[in-house]
Amino acid sequence: MINVVVLGFDQALASAITGVVDLFAMAGVTWNRIQGEPTEPVFKTLIASKNQQDIQCSNGLKLAAHLSFDDITQAQVIIVPTIGGPINQVLAFNPELISLLQKAHHANWTIAGNCTGNFLLAQAGILDGKSATTHWGFKNDFEQRFPNVLLKTDQMITRDENIYCAGGGLAWFDLGLHIIERSVGFETAIQTAKAFVLDYRRDSQLSYSIMRLSKAHKDEMVRQAQAFLEENYAQPFNVESFAQSFSISKRTLIRRFNNALAMPPNSYLQSIRIERAQKMLEESQHNVEQVMNLVGYEDASSFRRLFRKKTGLSPTEYRHRFSRRSD
Predict the structure, then answer these.
(1) Mean per-residue pLDDT for 171-197?
(2) Highest mean pLDDT of the ranges 140-149, 184-193, 206-215
(3) Taking the mean position of all CA atoms in its chain, how far away is CA 81?
């Protein structure tokens, strides 16, 4: 049996604790039952907390712990669930958990953090210089707090040495299946995914993120330029001519966009076009080529390449996953 310990704390997301416990408990069990074969449980999963206290989850649910942090002398895998409450409070009120993470890292145990739970791993210093991910919505906060972490919020799962990170509040199932594959094998992981009716090997968070184009700034000229591009995004665009319309040089226009929005005008326009394409694919009956033309692109291969870069999916894959139309 592979020993897994989930580290509970107040204001954790309940499902990121109970869900991952269920997932590991049913690995080698549910699929076998469906197939009429003998069950072969693979994992022993326990919940730990400070002094074995009940865990007050962010949804008001209380969970009992099996053991205290101090009782953990050996674990092949420890898992840190999602922070569901105020991140500042959780980081400040859990020095014992942070010390345990440092101990586990020193002992080379496998450490897996989910979503905002990775803030705790970073607070422990064990992510410095390592690749990690977290929920795409907390990217800026994470980067400001932990500049030494190689944050990759486009990725659903990262692995660097003995540390795994997952992005998204419910990405515990991606994380759990990944650990099942690494610990037991692909066959058990895919059987568990099928038994739970889960999509396996989701690679990217890009298709779930909202493009944050309206970054606050004080440059009135850039605001006017943004408004024009948002209104006329499908029209042909030339940076030099666009700069002349504001009586400035191309170089000055690019510099002011970079200062205000951390991207040049071309990239800003591309992001608007892809955002509009996403909305059309979700809500309209236009085919992919029509959507491409409506947002200002003529070359299909360039459009598909850019769309995948921005969302992690092809336009067709995106429509299949997010379309709101009934067939």
Answers:
(1) 86
(2) 140-149
(3) 13
d(CA 190, CA 180): 9
The CATH classification number of 220-322 equals: 1.10.10.60
SS3 of residue 5 by DSSP: strand
Domain map (residue ranges) of the chain: 2-208, 220-322
- Count the neighbouring beta carbons within 10 Å of the beta carbon of residue 150: 13
Half-sphere CA count of 241, side-chain side, radius 13 A: 4
CA angle, 71 then 111 then 60, to 5°:
70
Among positive and negative, which fits the CA dihedral 143, 148, 153, 157?
negative
At residue 47, what is the residue type?
I
Report pLDDT for 173.
Answer: 85
Decide which of 232 and 311 is more confident: 232
Give the C-alpha separation, 49 to 69, whole Å. 6
C-alpha span between 7 and 111 (Å, rounded): 11
Quick one: CA torsion of 226, 230, 234, 237, rounded to 10 degrees?
Answer: 0
Q: Measured between alpha carbons, how far is 273 from 279 in angstroms, rounded to an integer?
A: 10
Q: Which stretch of DSSP H or E encloses residue 114?
A: strand 110-114
Structural tokens at position 252: 């000055």
Q: What's the CATH code, domain 2-208?
A: 3.40.50.880
* Letter string b/e over residues 58-70, b meaning 16 or more CB atoms within 10 A of that residue's CB: beeeebebeeebe
| Cβ pair 69, 97 in contact under 8 A | yes
